[in-house]
Amino acid sequence: MLAAHRHDGAAVDLEREDSSGRTALSWAVEYGHPEVVRALLRAGADPDAENSKGIAPKTAALRGLKRTEIVELLQNAGKG
User: pTM (2 decimals)?
Assistant: First the structure.
């Protein structure tokens, strides 16, 4: 399980889906927030994790208009 920690030290599951099947990364990608995408990737969110509909954040970013910065962040995620 990928996890980050809140300021109080409690673990946060970065891959947890909400009732609509989206992770925090999925939401950040879909609504065009590159600064949030960057923070979630640094915390360990998986850019290739598919949601309950089989759509990965990278795929969602490629579908969106004016999301080039987000696409680049996702494509570079995990590269050493």
Answer: 0.73
Locate the domains of the chain by residue range.
Answer: 23-80
Residue 21 corresponds to which tokens in the numbers above?
């099947």
**pLDDT bracket for residue 12 (50, 70, 90):** confident
Q: Where are the beta strands (DSSP E) in 1-80?
A: 3-5, 11-13
Say whether pLDDT at 34 is over 70: yes
Positive or negative torsion for Cα 56, 14, 23, 32 = negative
Q: Which CATH class is domain 23-80?
A: mainly alpha
Nearest of 29, 19, 20 to residue 56 by alpha carbon: 29
Q: Which two tokens stand for residue 49?
A: 């994790």
